[in-house]
Specification:
This is GAF domain-containing protein. Keywords: Coiled coil. Pfam families: GAF_2, PAS_4. With 439 residues, the chain is of the alpha+beta class. It folds into three domains: 131 residues, PAS domain (Beta-Lactamase); 169 residues, Beta-Lactamase, CATH 3.30.450; 75 residues, no CATH class. Helix content is 46%, strand content 20%. The strands form three sheets. Strands 8-7-6-11-10-9 form a six-stranded antiparallel sheet. A five-stranded antiparallel sheet has the order 2-1-5-4-3, sandwiched between helices. Strand 12 and strand 13 form a beta hairpin.
Length: 439
C-alpha cells in the first residue's frame, strides 16, 4: 500500500502533464514544462518553440541557457521566486524582447507561471502557459495612431506635419528597424520632391529631392513610373540603384521597398518608401503597413491639394477685387478731373466772352482780361480767340491757361498779339512743346 501510495501521486502528475501536452500540442498558446531550480525545459509545444525561434528550438536545457536574454529582463528571477514560494504568477500584456542581434524582436504576452508539485507537495518545476498579444497590441497601437493621423488631416494640419508623424508612426510600429520616406510628385508627375523622412540623413534627403520618375530610377522613381510597388531587397546588387548605390551606402541603407501614392483618379501623388539597414525581403506585415499608410498619405496629400487650390482661388479673387477697386477709383478720379477741366473750360470761356464784350470799346486793353472775378494786373500781351469769334487779351499765364483748357481756343493772328508775340515771349518753351496752333 505504501509503495503504491507513494507512486500514485507521481503517476497522476505525469498523466496531468501528458494531458496538458495533448491540450496544448497544436494550440496557438505557448506551453512549456520546466523542471528543477535550473528550469530545464522538459517539454514544449510547437507554439513555444516557434516563439523562441527555430534556430534554438530544443528541450533538455535550462531556460536561461536556451533564452539568455530573459535574465536581463527579470523573467528568470521571477521563475526563481515562483519555484521558491510555490505561489503562481500571472502577467498581463507584458513586454519581452526575444532573442538578440538580427533575430531580436519585441513581443507582448499574457502568461502564467504555475508551480508543479510532487506527491509530497514540494515544488519540482514550473508550467509556463501564455498567449502572445503582440499582434493585438500592435493593432491597438496602429488604430490609435491611424485615428490620430485622420484627425490631423480633418483639422487641416500642415501636410509636412502629417507626413512626418506618419513616418515616425510606421517606424515605431514596424517589427524591425525601418526608415520611412515620403516623396511628393510635382504637378506634371515627372519629378519627386522631399515630403518627410525623419530618420534618413539630411544629405540623403537633399540628394534625392527632385529625382525624375522613370524606369530604373531607384525604387521610388521606378514605382512612380510603373504606378505599382517596387521591392529592392539588396541595393548593392540591384540595377535600379546603379546611379544611387554610393549614396545609399553613405546613408547606411541596404534595402528599399517603394509604394506609389495614387489619387482616386489614378494620378500620381508621390511615393512611400521603407528603407532597411540590411538586405531584406518584406513580410506580409510590412506590406500591410505600406498599403494602409500609402492610402492615408494619399488622403492627406489630396486634402492638401484641395485646400491649396481653394486658398489660391481666394487669393486670385482678392487680387481681382483689389484690381477692380483700383480701376473704379481711377475711373472716379478721371471723371472728377474731367469734370473739373470742363468746369474750368466753361469758366474760361465765360471770361473770354466777358472780355470780348468789354473790349468792344478798347480793342487792346493794358491789363489782362482773363483773370476772372479776382482780376489780374499783369499786362495784356496775348490775344486768344475761339471758334465762335470771341477774342480776349490776357497775360501770358492766363492766355496759356485758356489755350490748354478751352477747347478750340487759339492765339489770334493779330499784330503783336499772335504767334510771333508768343514765340518772342517764351522762345524756349515754344520750341520744347512744339508751339500752339494759330488761327
Amino acid at each position: 500500500m505504501t509503495a503504491a501510495s507513494d507512486q500514485h501521486p507521481f503517476t497522476a502528475e505525469s498523466a496531468a502533464d501528458e494531458d496538458l501536452r495533448a491540450l496544448f500540442g497544436q494550440s496557438i498558446a505557448v506551453f512549456a514544462s520546466l523542471a528543477g531550480p535550473a528550469h530545464v525545459v522538459e517539454t514544449a509545444n510547437p507554439a513555444f518553440l516557434a516563439t523562441i525561434g527555430e534556430h534554438r528550438a530544443r528541450t533538455g536545457v535550462p531556460l536561461a541557457e536556451l533564452m539568455p536574454e530573459l535574465a536581463g529582463q527579470g523573467f528568470i528571477a521571477l521563475l526563481d521566486e515562483v519555484y521558491r514560494t510555490g505561489e503562481p504568477y500571472t502577467g498581463r500584456d507584458v513586454r519581452v524582447v526575444l532573442d538578440t542581434g538580427p533575430h531580436a524582436r519585441e513581443a507582448f504576452f499574457d502568461f502564467t507561471y504555475e508551480p508543479r508539485r510532487d506527491g509530497r507537495g514540494d515544488v519540482v518545476g514550473i508550467r509556463v502557459i501564455g498567449v502572445e498579444t503582440t499582434q493585438v497590441k500592435h493593432a491597438q497601437h496602429l488604430m490609435a495612431e491611424h485615428r490620430a493621423l485622420l484627425e490631423q488631416i480633418a483639422r487641416q494640419a500642415p501636410l509636412a506635419e502629417v507626413l512626418d508623424g506618419m513616418a515616425r508612426c510606421i517606424e515605431d510600429l514596424a517589427p524591425r528597424e525601418v526608415l520611412v520616406s515620403v516623396l511628393l510628385a510635382d504637378p506634371d508627375g515627372r519629378h519627386l520632391r522631399h515630403g518627410a523622412a525623419p530618420s534618413l540623413p539630411d544629405f540623403y534627403n537633399q540628394a534625392i529631392d527632385g529625382i525624375a520618375t522613370g524606369e530604373g530610377v531607384g525604387s521610388c522613381g521606378t514605382a512612380a513610373h510603373r504606378r505599382e510597388p517596387v521591392v529592392v531587397t539588396d541595393i548593392a546588387t540591384d540595377p535600379f540603384w546603379d546611379d544611387f548605390r554610393d549614396l545609399a551606402e553613405q546613408a547606411g541603407v541596404a534595402a528599399c521597398w517603394s509604394t506609389p501614392i495614387l489619387a482616386r483618379d489614378g494620378s500620381l501623388l508621390g511615393t512611400f518608401a521603407m528603407y532597411h539597414r540590411t538586405p531584406r525581403a518584406p513580410q506580409e506585415l510590412d506590406l500591410a503597413l505600406a498599403r494602409v499608410f500609402a492610402g492615408t498619405a494619399a488622403l492627406a496629400i489630396e486634402r492638401h491639394h484641395t485646400e491649396q487650390a481653394r486658398r489660391d482661388a481666394e487669393v486670385r479673387a482678392e487680387q481681382a477685387h483689389a484690381e477692380l477697386t483700383r480701376a473704379m477709383r481711377a475711373e472716379q478720379k478721371l471723371r472728377a478731373e474731367a469734370e473739373q477741366r470742363a468746369a474750368a473750360a466753361a469758366e474760361l470761356a465765360d471770361r473770354m466772352r466777358a472780355a470780348a464784350a468789354a473790349q468792344a470799346a478798347v480793342p487792346h486793353p493794358e491789363q489782362c482780361r482773363l483773370g476772372g472775378a479776382d482780376g489780374c494786373t499783369e499786362p495784356a500781351e496775348l490775344k486768344v480767340a475761339d471758334a465762335w469769334g470771341d477774342a480776349a487779351w490776357g497775360c501770358h499765364a492766363h492766355a496759356e491757361e485758356a489755350l490748354l483748357t478751352v477747347r478750340s481756343a487759339f492765339i489770334a493772328n493779330e499784330e503783336l498779339g499772335g504767334l510771333a508775340a508768343y514765340l518772342n515771349r517764351r522762345p524756349a518753351r515754344a520750341r520744347h512743346t512744339g508751339g500752339p496752333h494759330t488761327g
